[in-house]
Amino acid sequence: MTRFSVAASLLALAVTALPVQPAAAAASSPMQVYGAWHCSNDACTWAKVRDLAEFDAANHWLIDRGDGRPSVNVVVLSFVNPLRLLNGTTDAGNAAGVPVGMDQRVVDYFTAHGIRVMLSIGGITYTGDWDTALAQNGTLLGQKAAALASKLGVGIEIDYENSNNPNLTGLQAFVDAYRAAHPYDASGADPTARLTIDVAAGDRWLIGIDQYATANWLTTANPVLDYANAMVPSRQPSASSATANWQEHLDGKPTYNPAIPPLAPAKFTGSLYVAEGSKVRPECNDFANSVQKATGSWVQSAAPNGAGTTAGLLGFMFWAAEKPSTRGVTTAPPNSCEGGVGAGATAFSVPVPMPPLRQS
C-alpha cells in the first residue's frame, strides 16, 4: 500500500467516526390568525336582526369544530357601508349607520367562545362610498369607526378596494383619527385597538393602497396597523398560485414607481374560499384535499425577504361564512365547515383565543 493509500484509508476511517449531524429544521412559526369573514344570510348586508337560535343553527360550526372547540379564532362581520357610517344613516337595514344585524348579541355569541370579532368597513360594493366618505371627512369617519368599535368591543378592518385612484390622504386621516382613540396595542389585549387592512392576493392589484400601507402602516419598526389580509383572488387558486401570490408581498415590487417594499411575513395572512359561487370547496368540508393543507407548511415557514425577522405568515382567513352572495351556496348545514376549517384548526393547533401576535 502506498503512502497515499494509507493516508486515504485513515481519512476515510476518521470521517466514518464523526457523528452524523441532523439536517437543520426549516424555521417556522405556528399560526396565530385563523378566521372567517362572515356575511350573515343576506349577501353581506346584515340588514336584518337575526334570531339567535336560527343564527346558531346556521353557524354553530364556527364555535364548535365537533369537539367543543371553536373552528376559528377571529370572525370579521362584513360589511359596514362607510358613507352610511359617516352620515349616521338610519333606514330599514341600518341604525345610526350600522347594519342592524351587527348587534351586541351577535358579537357576544362569538366572544363568549374566545373568538375575536371585527367589523369590516367597505367591500367592493361600497368602493364608491369609501371615495365619497373620505372626500367628505376622513377624520370624522375614523372617529365614528372608533366609537363603533368602543360600543361593541370589536376591532375594525379597512376594506377599501379602489384599484385606480384611492384617496390615500383621506385614508391616512381615517387611520390617524382611529389611532387617536385606540392606540396600537402590541399585546392584543384591547379588542378595539385591532385595526387591519385588506390588500390584494398579490402585489398587482390595489397597488396604491398596497404600496402605501406596506410602506407606512405595516412596518415592524413602527407599526400602525396590526396586519393585512391578502384577499382571495377571483377564484380559488391552486396551491402553487396561492403561494406565488403571497410571495409577491414578501418580495415587494422594487421596479414599481413608487416601489412596493417587501412585507414582513408576520404582518399578513393568506386567504382562501370555503365556498365559491355554487360550489362548496374542500376548505369547508374536506381538509385532506384542501389548498390550505397543501400550503400550510409554506404558510408557516415562508421566509422574510427584506422585511421582518421571523418566518411564517400569521395564518389563514376564509371567504366567507354563511351566504356571501344571493345566488351562491351557504355554509349553513348541510354545508357547515367542521371538516375543513375545523379540521384545519386541529391540524395546525390554532390557539383560541388568539394570542399576542408576532411583532417581527
Characterise this structure.
By secondary structure, the chain is α/β, with parallel strands linked by helices. The protein has one domain (29-347): TIM Barrel (Alpha-Beta Barrel). The protein has 11 helices and 12 strands. The strands form 3 sheets. The protein has an 8-stranded parallel β-barrel, surrounded by 5 helices. It is globular. The protein starts with a helix and ends in a 13-residue tail after the last helix.
SSE blueprint and pairings:
Blueprint: H1 3-17, E1 33-38, H2 52-63, E2 74-80, H3 82-87, E3 94-95, E4 98-99, H4 104-111, E5 116-122, H5 127-152, E6 155-159, H6 168-181, E7 195-199, H7 207-216, E8 228-230, H8 239-251, E9 268-273, E10 275-276, E11 279-280, H9 282-285, H10 291-301, E12 315-321, H11 338-347
Parallel strand pairs: 1-2, 1-12, 2-5, 5-6, 6-7, 7-8, 8-9, 9-12
Antiparallel strand pairs: 3-4, 10-11
Helix pairs in contact: 2-4, 5-6, 8-10
What ranges have pLDDT less than 50 throughout 5 or more consecutive residues? 1-25
CATH architecture: Alpha-Beta Barrel
| Averaged pLDDT | 93
Main sheet summary: 8 strands, parallel, barrel
Count of helical regions: 11
Structural class: alpha/beta
**How many separate domains?**
1
Can you tell me the CATH superfamily?
Glycosidases
Tell me the name of the CATH class.
Alpha Beta
Strand content: 15-25%
Please state how the strands of the largest beta sheet are arranged side by side. Answer: 1-2-5-6-7-8-9-12
CATH topology call? TIM Barrel
